């Protein structure tokens, strides 16, 4: 998989991206984030960044995150998604590791993601990476907050 920056110019590709099967209600939120929100948000929000993963000229994975602009900054993942037909090939983990690597290089200390309690694939992916901790979201208890601390021993 080749990982490159996503820009508003990729709007048509983003609009066509499908990552949610019919039984994955939590993934439909992620799909809408990619298909409807990402292109306009990339135009408008200077704190939002996104990368795409391509295989044979097909966009197979998307990750986007927001920085809070603090010192040191915290990044919050807006979405991490792998296209239908391309899951369970390691692309999701590769994208998450790319985000964590970029965060480390940018001096970020914490990368946070919000994961629905039913979203087993995302919980498994996070559990299989080093350095992650999770707690139930006190405001939205059907979600967990996953945190990866960078630049220090776990
Ligand atoms: C969550 C998601 C990104 C995972 O992507 P993926 O490319 O399928 O995951 P990977 O192949 O990289 O798997 C990484 C690890 O997670 C685990 N895993 C992921 N999906 C799994 C599944 N359906 N069943 C069992 N284990 C799974 C595996 O343990 C794997 O580790 P392993 O290779 O050592 O066994 C993908 O399922 C997806 O796009 N879901 C819809 C969008 C979404 O809900 N995103 C999260 C909220 S923004």
List the topology elements:
Elements (H helix, E strand, L loop, with lengths): L1 E4 L5 H5 L9 H20 L3 E8 L2 E10 L6 E9 L8 H15 L4 E7 L3 H8 L4 E5 L6 E7 L5
Bound molecules: coenzyme A.
Task: Give a summary of the structure in a few sentences.
The chain is built from four helices and seven strands. With 154 residues, the chain is of the alpha+beta class.
Describe the overall structure.
- The protein is an alpha+beta fold and 154 residues long.
- It has one domain (2-149): Gcn5-related N-acetyltransferase (GNAT) (Aminopeptidase, 3-Layer(aba) Sandwich), CATH 3.40.630.30.
- 31% of the residues lie in helices and 32% in strands.
- The protein has helices at residues 11-15, 25-44, 91-105, 120-127, and strands at residues 2-5, 48-55, 58-67, 74-82, 110-116, 132-136, 143-149.
- A seven-stranded mixed sheet has the order 1-2-3-4-5-7-6.
- The chain starts with a strand and ends in a 5-residue tail after the last strand.
- The model has no long low-confidence stretch (mean pLDDT 96).
- Residues 19, 26-27, 30, 79-82, 87-93, 115, 119, 121-122, 124-125, 128 line the site of coenzyme A (COA).
